[in-house]
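Message: Just now I want nothing more than another pair of eyes on a protein record. I am handing you a single protein, as its sequence and its fold in token form. As I understand it, each token names a local backbone shape. Take your time, and here it is.
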Amino acid sequence: MIRPLRVALTATLTLALTVPAGAASAAPAGAPTGAVDRAAATRWAADTWRSMVAMTDPGTGLPADNIDGDLTVDSRAKYTSPTNIGSYIWSAVVARELKLIGERELVRRVDAALDSLARLDRHADSGMFFNWYDPATLELLRTWPVDGTPVYPFASSVDNAWLAAALMIVHNALPQLRGKSDPLLNTMDFGFYYDPQALGAEVPVGLMRGGFWVEPPPGCSLPGNYRGRGPDVHYTCHTYGAFNSETRMISYVAIARGQVPPAHYFGPWRTFPDTCDWSWQEMKPVGGYREYAGVRVFEGAYRYRGLQFVPSWGGDMFEAFMPDMFVPETRWGPNSWARNHPVYVRGQIAHGLEDAKYGHWGFSPASDPAGGYREYGVDAMGLDTPGYTSDQERTSVDYGFEGCPDRPAQPEPAAYGDGVVTPHAVFLALQYAPAQAQAELAKLRREFDVYGPGGFYDSVAVRSGTVAKRYLALDQGMVLGALGNLLGDDVLRDQFTPGGPERLLRPVMRMEEFSVPARQ
């Protein structure tokens, strides 16, 4: 999601997602709650839902982007996005499944949100929504309400994918509202973002652009129109090239909607190749090439603390696991995601407890306890060389790139600083490490003032004890999504997957084998 609070995150994504020229077993989706205390988890869900209700404008039915930890109405943000709206809709479906609200309230809330969505300005030729609206007036923002800076209306591909996912859930979970949800969904054409030549003429599939502006923005943009419908737009100069990222949700939705070829699944990089042309990435990957559906794929993997896995872009939990809330990746990818997800969680735990020695774990972009918003992750588990770091001091690693003289290895850090843990990252791990995740959440509550009227606050710097006492619609939606699937027998996955996802996406996912051992 592109917004002023995420300038650092956006800048790194823009720079390096452009494709350059030159001993745990997988828990199946729907696994038993295991060591998770169901009563405690239900209380967490109820409190988290309270924050979503507090963020929602009663006149329009749309959520704000965030709210202060005391849930006062006056502290609601004056802006919202397609992701926030989608997050609220799927959270309401979870709330019904967990009996936090009844059917009538669910229908009322989703109906109001759909009515407001239909009134928002959007890009007529693609059906895409822009990134920033006033949730109280429904006006498209052209001035940022926090500081008065100009806003250039931008249609983000990943933000629209999260909203489309929510509308697909409405279609299956609330058939009585299809008359309102389907017209919105059916006009959203993700082929508008699809650059079929992004990987070169010799590769039969392309990549997704980060989004487009309807007017030329400051900085880099590329005029074009992949659908040839309406006037040219101004695309981001980057395509999304890293596969293990939240941006794979764009591909999932576009494939499921029949708007791009299913083989596009194999276009983005698992890691970048192992030659010196790609030595800017975090480390030299292991692995080799395989071919699926006519696409040659470099099945690369990274190694960290004895674990082998496909990295995310920044080494964080949000990128690796948010799409898994909707697509049953471990079932549909038995030789790929089913191997990767539990190992990736183990890497996050190992970093927090063994490497950085914070005594805590769970790293993902979140509110900065010092103010604003920042990206956090495990640097060694991400493709990005500068990396999303786990602490305030931005302590990073550089393993070099064996065989490339321009990338010698650097000494490992002597110590890490004030590590920042975000509870939503721990919730995303519940399916794959239930005992460890519940223990971490309990320890956070025991050691810090990290729980308020809307559930867990957004983040805590664990050495200073500084807490970001704020709730974000996106992060609360991840908490509820994870709990809904865990306690509600895969409710979001079951309501997302019928139809196109099952028919078009599942077959390509089943083909792939990551360079990740079946047992580690």
